[in-house]
Specification:
384 residues; alpha+beta; 2 domains; 4 strands; elongated
Length: 384
C-alpha cells in the first residue's frame, strides 16, 4: 500500500487523492471481507420462525379474586372507606419465561442433540434455546411465543407445545395456591363452628335461667352494629394471616389488611369503652341481664357472619384445587412457515460490504497519519 507525506491537516482534495492512490487496497479489502461474510452467511443453515398467539381468561381464576371487595359495603358504614387497596398479581410472563418450562422443552425435544451440544452444560443449552425463542406481550393484551428451528414443522410443534406446558404449570400453581387457602380456611372454619357451639349452649342456659324469651329491639340493634364491626375485624385478621402466609408480610394486600385490622380494633375499642354508642354509658359499664344477653347474642351473630362470609371462599378453594382448566387460550396456533426467517443473508452481506469499505478508508487514513507522525518525530529528533 502506498503512502506519502502530507501536512497535518487534510483538505478534501488531499483526502481524495490519498484514497484514490490506495483504491486497490480499499477495493480488495472490501471484496475479501464481503466474500468471507458471504461464505459465512451461506454456510449458516436456514431457520424457520413459528409464532403462537394466546390470551389469558377474561375473569381471573385466582381464589383470592373478589376478596378485596368482600367487606367494602360494610366499611362504608363504619367510616373506613379511605383505606383503599392496590392489588397486583404476577403476569403470565413469569411462567412463560421460567426455567422450568425451558428445561421441559430441552428434555422433550432432546435439544442437546438437536443443537449439537451433547457435551455442553445445561447452562449453555439454556442460553442456546433462549436465543431461539422469544416471548412478548402485545399492546392488545395477548401474549406471543416465537420459536426458531431449522425444521419448519418442528418450529411450529415446539411453539404449540410450549403453550401446553405453560398451561400445565399455571394449573399446578393455581392448585397449590388453592390448597394453601383451603387448608387455612378449613382450620378457621372448624374453630368458628366450635366457638358457635359453645356460645349457643351458653346463651341457651342463660336464657333458660333468666327466663328471657327475646331481647329488646334496642339490644338487637346494638348487637347487630357491634357484630358487624367484630365480624369485619375477625375477617380482616383471617385475610391478613392468609395473605401473609401466601404472599409474605411486605405484600401491599397484606399491609392493607394489617392496617384494616388496626382500624377495626380501634373502632371496636371506642364502641366498648367510650360512652355514646348505646347511650350515655359504655357497653362494658352496662350491667344486668339485658347486657349479658346482648354479649352472648353478639358473639353468636359475629361468628355466624364470619362463617357466612368464609363459606363461599372455602368452596371456591376446594373447587379450584380439583379443577383442570386452561389458563391461556390459543388465538392463533403456530403453523409451519412457508419461508425461512433467518439468517438475513442480504443484510449480512450488505452490512459487511458497507462496514468493510468504511473500515478500509479509516485504516488507510490511520496508517497514513502514523507515517506522517513517524517522519515528523524523526525530524524533531534530528533537530535537537
Amino acid at each position: 500500500m502506498n503512502t506519502e507525506k502530507t501536512p497535518n491537516n487534510f483538505d478534501g482534495m488531499q483526502l481524495t487523492a490519498l484514497l484514490f492512490k490506495n483504491k486497490v487496497f480499499i477495493i480488495i479489502f472490501t471484496m475479501v471481507a464481503t466474500a468471507v461474510a458471504s461464505l459465512i452467511a451461506f454456510l449458516k443453515p436456514d431457520e424457520y420462525m413459528a409464532t403462537v398467539s394466546v390470551v389469558p381468561p377474561k375473569v381471573s381464576s385466582s381464589v383470592f379474586e373478589g376478596v378485596l371487595g368482600n367487606i367494602s359495603s360494610t366499611l362504608r358504614d363504619i367510616g373506613l372507606t379511605k383505606l383503599g387497596t392496590q392489588s397486583e398479581g404476577y403476569t403470565f410472563m413469569v411462567i412463560l419465561t421460567s426455567r422450568t418450562l425451558i428445561d421441559s422443552m430441552i428434555k422433550i425435544f432432546d435439544l442437546p442433540r438437536r443443537y449439537n451440544m451433547i457435551d455442553k452444560s445445561m447452562v449453555d443449552i439454556r442460553k442456546e434455546f433462549i436465543e431461539n425463542y422469544e416471548v412478548s406481550i402485545e399492546k392488545a393484551g395477548n401474549y406471543t411465543v416465537t420459536i426458531w428451528d431449522r425444521d419448519k414443522d418442528t418450529a411450529a410443534l415446539m411453539a404449540n407445545t410450549f403453550i401446553r406446558l405453560a398451561n400445565q404449570k399455571a394449573m399446578e400453581l393455581s392448585q397449590q395456591e388453592a390448597k394453601v387457602t383451603r387448608e387455612y380456611l378449613e382450620e378457621r372454619f372448624n374453630s368458628i363452628d366450635s366457638a358457635l357451639a359453645v356460645l349457643s349452649d351458653s346463651l341457651g342456659k342463660f336464657a333458660g335461667s333468666k327466663m328471657i324469651i327475646a331481647p329488646l329491639e334496642q339490644a338487637q340493634a346494638i348487637s347487630s352494629a357491634i357484630s358487624d364491626v367484630k365480624a369485619k375485624l375477625i375477617e380482616s385478621e383471617i385475610y391478613y394471616e392468609l395473605f401473609k402466609k401466601t404472599y409474605g408480610s411486605v405484600d401491599p394486600i397484606t399491609d392493607y389488611y394489617k392496617n384494616l385490622k388496626l382500624e377495626l380494633s380501634k373502632q371496636l375499642n371506642e364502641i366498648q369503652f367510650k360512652p355514646g354508642f348505646a347511650g350515655n354509658f359504655t357497653i362494658k359499664e352496662a350491667a344486668g341481664i339485658g347486657i349479658s344477653y346482648i354479649k352472648l347474642y353478639t358473639e353468636i351473630e359475629t361468628y355466624s357472619k364470619v362463617k357466612a362470609a368464609l363459606f363461599p371462599m372455602l368452596e371456591k378453594a376446594r373447587l379450584d384445587e380439583r379443577r383442570n382448566a386452561q389458563f391461556l387460550f390459543v388465538v392463533d396456533e403456530a403453523v409451519p412457515p412457508d419461508k425461512k426467517d433467518r439468517p438475513k443473508r442480504s443484510i449480512i452481506i450488505g452490512g459487511t460490504a458497507v462496514g468493510s469499505f468504511v473500515f478500509s478508508i479509516f485504516l488507510v487514513i490511520a496508517i497514513n497519519r502514523y507515517k506522517i507522525f513517524k517522519t515528523q518525530y524523526a525530524e524533531a529528533q534530528e533537530g535537537i
